[in-house]
Amino acid sequence: MRKLFAKIAVILVLLAAFDVLAGVVLDWLRDHSPDGRYYKTKYSLEACDEDVVVIGSSRGEINYVSQIIEDSLGMRCWNASRGGQGTPYFRAIQEGVLSRYAPKIVILNIDDNDLETQPNYEHAGVLRPFYQSHPEIRPILDKTSPFEWLLLKSRLYAYNSSYYYLIRPYFIQGLDGKTSDKGWKPRLEKMNVEINGDLEPEPNKVPLHPESVALFDTLVHKFQERGCKVFLVVSPNFGRTVSASSAIEYLRKTSRERDIPLFIYSNDTAFITKPGYYVDPDHLNVEGAQIFTQHLIRQIKPLVHSNHLSQHVDTVR
Predict the structure, then answer these.
(1) CA 48 to CA 96: how far, in whole Å?
(2) What is the mean pLDDT of residues 158-168?
(3) CA distance linking residue 171 with residue 127, whole number of Å
(4) Half-sphere exposure of 300 (CA within 13 A, CB side)
């Protein structure tokens, strides 16, 4: 039995050593990525200091052209959005940003049904490789599972299911947008469909999920508490009009109570009836994103300058 326990101990030590060594290699690949998802997440958490920050899911990532925002507002812009994500990821990015500084302007892209389902903390698992180095995001990731904090002692676990996206930028660059695009992910394709008849009818209302609402409220409150000017935006989808979902009604309520400008494009026929603006029913292509961003910023610009936003950047020391 003593020999057996000794062998088991040796195996465990070797596994731990391999995990540590693999973690060193994986962390190096993460920290030196030329572009891609890990480059973007690392920059958002650790380095971005732009005046304007865009936060959202894939619609936020694809629909908002950073350069147009910069040229129009005369402020530097970073698009910190990430496809497939929701409020848990948004909150984690917020914690990383606010631990360093407070942006002057935050544009939050909220989907028309974002607050109606339970928050998916597992999707925010893409942030696991940053768990050890960013204590501010740990409370969010810990909600993935009761043993998440323990599992994340392993660096191999932290990168589980992410190796492809970690290595890809070293061989194929620009698939998630060039670094010069400042977080925007342009899509070049165009849809070939037309609207035959009426738009899809307004979907049935779904009750709000209390936990999603609480996360959203915290998101807005923390930005406003730090003096950020917040803008809420609902992006358009092709062929579908949504004007009164439970989420949109809550956004309107939040807009009134917190004095936050809200821009709803999910029922705007100037966008939802134009297939040439889309790469698929849910995302704008380059042309559509440019037109959408220009239209949005024309509305935001007077509100920005009327408030005389200070040039001072609130930096955490």
Answers:
(1) 10
(2) 89
(3) 22
(4) 28
How confident is the prediction for the chain on average, in pLDDT?
A: 91
Which is more confidently placed, 203 or 308?
203
**Domains of the chain with CATH codes:** 50-118+181-307 (3.40.50.1110)
Helix/strand/coil for 264: strand
Nearest to 91 by CA among 197, 180, 199, 214: 214
Lay out the sheet containing 105-109: strands in order across: 77-79, 52-55, 105-109, 229-234, 262-264
Residue 55's SS3 state is strand
The helix (run of H) or strand (run of E) holding residue 232 is strand 229-234
Rounded CA separation 168/39 (Å): 12
Contacts of 172 (CB under 8 A, 6+ apart): none
Could you identify the residue written with the tokens 């497939």?
A: 84
CA 76 to chain centroid, in Å, comes to 18
Other Cβ atoms within 10 Å of 132 Cβ, number: 14
Contact by Cβ (8 Å): 36, 61 = no
Nearest to 251 by CA among 272, 220, 222: 220
The pLDDT assigned to 176 comes to 85
Alpha helices by DSSP H, 120-235:
138-141, 148-151, 155-158, 163-167, 210-225
